[in-house]
Amino acid sequence: MAEPATTVARWRAVAGRYADAIAVRSPDGSLTYGAARDRADERGRALAAAVDEPGRPIAVDVESDVDSVLAVLSVLCSGHPVILLDPLLPAERREHILALSGARRFDPASMAALPPSDAPVPEPDPIDPSILIFTSGSTGKPKGLIHSQRGWVNQATDGREFLGLGPGDRMAVLLPISFGAGVDCLVMGLLNGATLLLWDVRRRTTTGLRDWLCAEAATTAHCTPSLLRSWLGDLDTDAALPELRLLSTCGEPVRGADVTRVRRTVMPSGTFCSWSGSSEIGNLAFNLFGPDRAVPDGAVAVGIPAGDKHVRIVDDNGDDVDAGDVGEIVVESGHLASGYHNDPELTAQRFEPIGDGRSRLRTGDLGRFDDSGMLHLLGRRDDAIKVRGYLVEPAEVETALRAMPWTVDAVVSANTERTQLIAHVAVDPSKWTPSPAEVRTALATTLAPWMIPRDVVIMTDLPRNERGKVDRVALPEPAARPKPDPPRGPTESMLALLWQEILGLDQVGRQEDFITLGGDSLAAATMIADINHRFQVELDTGLLTQAPTVAEFAQHLDAANESREKTATPRTLVRLREGVGSPLFLVAGAGSLATSLTPLARALATPRPVYGVQARGIEGRGRADQSIRAAARRLIRDVRSVQPRGPYLLGGYSWGGFVAIEAAARLSASGEHCESVIVLDSIIDPILAAAISDPKRRRRWRVAVDPAPATVTGALPDRSGKPSVGVETRSRWQIAWNVVVMNVLMSAAGLVRLPTTLQWTVFFDLGTRMIRRHRPVPFPGDIMLIRSRSNTDDLSLWRHFSLGAVRPVDVSGDHHSMVRTPYVSETAKAVGTAIGERVQEGAR
Fold this sequence. Notes:
Elements: H1 7-17, E1 22-26, E2 29-32, H2 33-50, E3 58-61, H3 66-78, E4 82-85, H4 91-101, E5 104-106, H5 108-112, E6 129-134, E7 144-148, H6 149-163, E8 170-173, H7 180-190, E9 195-198, H8 201-204, H9 209-215, E10 220-223, H10 225-232, E11 246-249, H11 256-264, E12 271-278, E13 282-289, E14 304-305, E15 310-314, E16 327-333, E17 339-340, H12 344-350, E18 351-355, E19 358-369, E20 375-380, E21 385-387, E22 390-392, H13 394-402, E23 407-415, E24 420-427, H14 436-443, E25 455-459, H15 489-503, H16 521-535, H17 543-546, H18 550-563, E26 573-577, E27 584-587, H19 598-603, E28 610-613, H20 628-642, E29 650-653, H21 655-669, E30 677-680, H22 686-693, H23 698-705, H24 732-747, H25 756-773, E31 783-788, E32 806-811, H26 824-843
Parallel strand pairs: 1-9, 3-4, 3-5, 4-6, 8-9, 8-10, 10-11, 11-12, 24-25, 27-28, 27-29, 29-30, 30-31, 31-32
Antiparallel strand pairs: 1-2, 6-7, 7-17, 12-13, 13-14, 15-16, 16-19, 18-19, 19-20, 21-22, 23-24, 26-28
């Protein structure tokens, strides 16, 4: 018996065969195939009578629920083509679709209220329109693509042949059914006799999703990669769904890490499918990973072409290229879209008839076939850009960005006017929030220099449009960068080359700012160490706050080089920004330079000057303070050198918060007034917590803290002078030797210059030991405790540090990322609010 050739005929055949089975279920209700068929036919006749213009589209407001599915089936059974309207579409966009299509609009309730009719409904032909899909329109206005009755039958056949969909499957559709891929799932499920399980993620979120899928015994699940990452990121490794045999994603590139994450969480023994397509093509390709198939690193190929989709890779002349070579993807099929609604000119440009009811589409996408016949997508042809004479595909750069451990998502755009690449990178703050310079440096290990984006924008997440795709229009512009002014003279030329190397840039102008270009404290320390070694001077990173450009820094370097004046005492106070009024003094964390707080100082909205304070000896030679109290006494001297009398405004990040509180307590005891101390994510070490909670435990506390420093890192040398390996591979004597070495280095911290990373490690461990040994003197005022959301300290412990109120404020990011882009803006707002409150109180 021949398979029905139209969407409507196949629906009725399947619904008759499985009349008693559940066709669609959501948390709010369900409907059998038989009931859905009868109601769809009844409402279809009513619609045919109400909309008597043959071929006029009917637009339906749909949610991911049973009533919406029934409404879509009703339009199909009326003989009219259907448009699925997303309720979350902007009003302007929805009106544009209605005006362009000339559609009559209904919602499920108004459709159900139509008077019944016995008017006959004509049977459609296989080439008649069935569903109109409007493009996502991330750039420009959406356009409607017409899909024929036979086109959806082909889609359903793909669902059976590639995904194995059929009766008995319980198909969890986690995509809104108004999306193109959501319509695909609806058709592939219902035209194969499966039960659709609808969960509206946008309204219900993923909370409770895993439990619902388990209770419904879902056998397949279908979503986007971004939704998958968000959902699985909240699950434990023992969250397997026992009945799940298949999980597919579509709409975005898939990475090997996505497949691995699925196997580790919800589906340890099922099949993962990367499934791709477009509004013009329908299904393009499927790539299935059974439980034993090896998972590639990086991007996953889109796979084997779908049914009746003949895919060619062609050169500029339209000739086929060899396997492995890159070219434009051309698709030939009898089941492509019929064209653009009411736009014959655009249809003729994109779709070329080739006879026998088939057409050819030049997709504008670049791709290649590998030796196994797998199709790889390599981005848009018109996205390619020539940099330094080399053709660069943004998709390849995106793949390298997504391979980085801190990256959640990334998109790379091409500025064709300036022949430059721009990368927007969403990062996971629980792993690390890199600076733009770190990103470029990491890319340099895998990409050619001309492939590294000049501009890198670090974000919390990428904006998406109503279709779930990256909204490129909403991506923030990178910081304005003027046309680089070439360096003048040998010093500026040397500096520009050094900054290019450290910041991962191909060009640095003489008036460009080191921090704005993406330099962080590590990049600054590396640069200063190189300068001091080359010129035999003793500059420090604080100079970058006064002279942040190549031209300004070169003047200071020339002056220092000419006079050869060595700094008599190591610098601990650095002015981070100019201003008027009483200053804000911020103490940096252990092992951190004062300049590490530059992003925070720049993000503050206060007109005050801001000073950063760092540990003595971390730059320049000078024995480091060995206790919080000693560091607090030095802080007081630094503060009074700028501001002889109060009231004082002190704050500190991490270790610096303890120093700031101690200094404020001592200033208050001497009769000076200190305003509320701003504490930025200072974490109370468990040993300190035990000691201040129970003073009788002091003896045991000293035994616990003295033998071993806070951390023993792989940066320490062993007796051979070579870098030591990871702690887990060391023998006991080697660990003991490193502990001894670290204790010696901490005792002499600041007196001997060490490599930058080891220097910072020593000061970090010294700071941790100082915190553990600290006995706080309570500050009589309030503490403004600005904490990262990852901080789980017991707030009650802060009563040992303040006799006033402790006012906590939680900000985004973790301990490190809260003072780095992009999270630093929220931290700065919290600091600014605290300062503003005090200004207003003073005014009263």
